[in-house]
Amino acid sequence: MARFDGKVALITGAASGIGAAAARRFAAEGAKVMLGDVDADGGRALAAKLGAAAAFEPVDVRRLEQVEAVTEAAVKHFGRLDIVFNNAGIGAYGATPDLDPELWRAVLEVDLFSIFYGCRAAIPHLRAGGGGAIVNTASISGLGGDYGLGAYNAAKGGVVNYTRTLAIDHARDKIRVNAVCPGPIDTPLAGPLLANPKIVDSYNQVIPMGRVGRAEEVAAAVAFLASDDAAYITGTMLVVDGGLTAATGQPNFTRLLGA
């Protein structure tokens, strides 16, 4: 497939996990890709593997000037900008009375403020090019609450509704804006959770498909939203969670009743 021939994509949080999987997917489908991440070693290594299809620029997405710089670098290096995947993210565990305010701030800055910075920097370029696509990484944690993940829930909930506003504000600019909402995915971000066998077993019990997801499965959804296959889709939240949020949360009656 070559859905992205002649297109240029900018990806933040691109050095590992979902971002790296998306970079590989876009490059495989013909795009030129600007990779942005605080992990300079990982970002440069991935760019080297992708060859002429990719370039890397270090970026701390908490800093507006750095997000603007990586956006300008993408346009300067490849001559245009068509797709933006705002993907960088972190998490934090802790109930509100125990949560360090600085950690709360860091999660909001990386997971939510960076979306604003990325869109603010990119939209003039997308508009000048006649349109484009923005995909934001939200989460099923932006669609409901989780025990002990207040900062992450707040940030991702903000991403969900901000994505809707972006979509309606810029539809007439021919800029589509959507979000992907992953469930539990085997990435470095989820590593501390998935290192706990009890948590993995619990996920395997409650996820209808019986396993956590892979970064490549989320990347496929991102590529769809960024492609012309989704030409009439904007303002949507595409859930990639193995059916986890399809359930009401009630006990598994089939398992418990032996049916």
What does this protein look like?
Helix 3 runs parallel beside helix 4 (101-128). The protein is globular, with a radius of gyration of 18 Å. By secondary structure, the chain is α/β, with parallel strands linked by helices. The mean pLDDT is 97. Strands 3-2-1-4-5-6-7 form a seven-stranded parallel beta sheet, with helices on both faces. It has nine helices and seven strands; from the N terminus they run βαβαβαβαβαβαααβα. The chain has one domain (8-186, 215-242): Rossmann fold (3-Layer(aba) Sandwich). The chain starts with 7 loop residues before the first strand and ends with a helix.
Tell how many strands the DSSP assignment holds: 7
Strand content: 5-15%
Largest sheet: 7 strands, parallel
Strand order of the largest sheet: 3-2-1-4-5-6-7
Q: Share of helix among residues?
A: 40-55%
Morphology call: globular
Instruction: Report mean pLDDT, rounded to a whole number.
Output: 97
Topology readout:
Elements: E1 8-12, H1 17-28, E2 32-37, H2 40-50, E3 54-58, H3 64-78, E4 83-86, H4 101-128, E5 132-137, H5 150-170, E6 175-182, H6 191-194, H7 197-206, H8 215-226, E7 237-240, H9 253-257
Parallel strand pairs: 1-2, 1-4, 2-3, 4-5, 5-6, 6-7
